[in-house]
Amino acid sequence: MKIGIVLYPTFGGSGIVATELGKALSRKGHEIHFITYSQPVRLDKLRENIFFHEVRISDYPLFDYTPYEQVLTSKLVDVVKYEKLDLLHVHYAIPHASAAFMAQKILESQGIKIPFITTLHGTDITLVGKDPSFEPVITFSINHSNAVTAVSNSLKNDTKDLFKITKDIEVIPNFICVKEYQLPNNEKYKKRLSPNNEFIITHVSNFRKVKRIEDVVKVFEIITKKVSAKLVLVGDGPERNKIERLCRAKLDNSAYTFLGNLKSTIEILNISDVFILPSEKESFGLAALEAMASSVPVISTCSGGIPEVIEDGKSGYLSKIGDVDDMAKNMLKILSSNETLKMFKEKAFERAKDFDIETVLPLYEELYNKTIKAT
Ligand code: GMT
Question: Which residue's CA lies nearest to atom 9 of ligand 1?
Fold first, then answer.
């Protein structure tokens, strides 16, 4: 198949899932065309059947706001026509689904049929989507997609609660390539971050308010009264400065390491003991799944789709949002002995295998075939 994938090329989960999906599809022989405004961060090399089409916007003095959606629409028309695509798969409802709808109509007027599938990732529905200024466009473009998927049941239900949805939403969970997460131990790197063999507690996110990173710091403070540990924070975003200042002001500020955005988190996860993701809302929690694929158990909350990924008491623990005492208590349980930690690590890895690309990819391929046939 020749598939156009539209995505946000940044460090956000939706962009990562879309890029990894395209890479995996290309390995199975499909021709993949990524369409977005810059090369996706996880798109390290372009292979023979991977193409990247940059949506370039020029600044006209007349525009206070450059109309990205129109430029993207024209690009979609161009790529579908000249690359003879069979299908468009757009990740994130706005403006990707509405641009795809417009492109579909333009192409239809030229006698070209192209179906498009919209995958909802979470923030497009639960945060941005809640804004009334987007609601009619989101409702319309979801209902007019040829097929719609959501990354968890929780997100599917949220979408149905927040919008008047007439379209069926299929749940296809996020995935990871388990094989890629199996690295040999890197003692040298571990020694650098935890010179006295302290536990390594890791958090990865885009440092937005919804991630509740202050809770990460609070939980860490509680557990370090009982065990020796180091906290590693990966990622960047609006909350980073505040959190960095908070950690620098601590008595033992050498316990906190900020690594910024990393193209790959596999190396740091490989030497981590426990991962913490205390989010207020998370439609799936791809960062948690990546940790589990590296055999790292997760301390998280019962919000959104997280309980569909982490089994409470097995691959990690789930607490109420903001209940830092419970999260700390659970983290200490995991770290209570080498045997317990080992057991949680094994269970986390076992659970991650349920979301292996080998299992999830065929669900997308099946949907692509069904959608093309129905168009
Ligand atoms: O989590 C973020 O802030 C990024 C966001 C995105 O849209 O890229 O992530 C969302 O999509 C991910 C991939 O499907 C999910 O794993 C995240 O749970 C989801 N984030 C939220 O729902 C807050």
Answer: 13
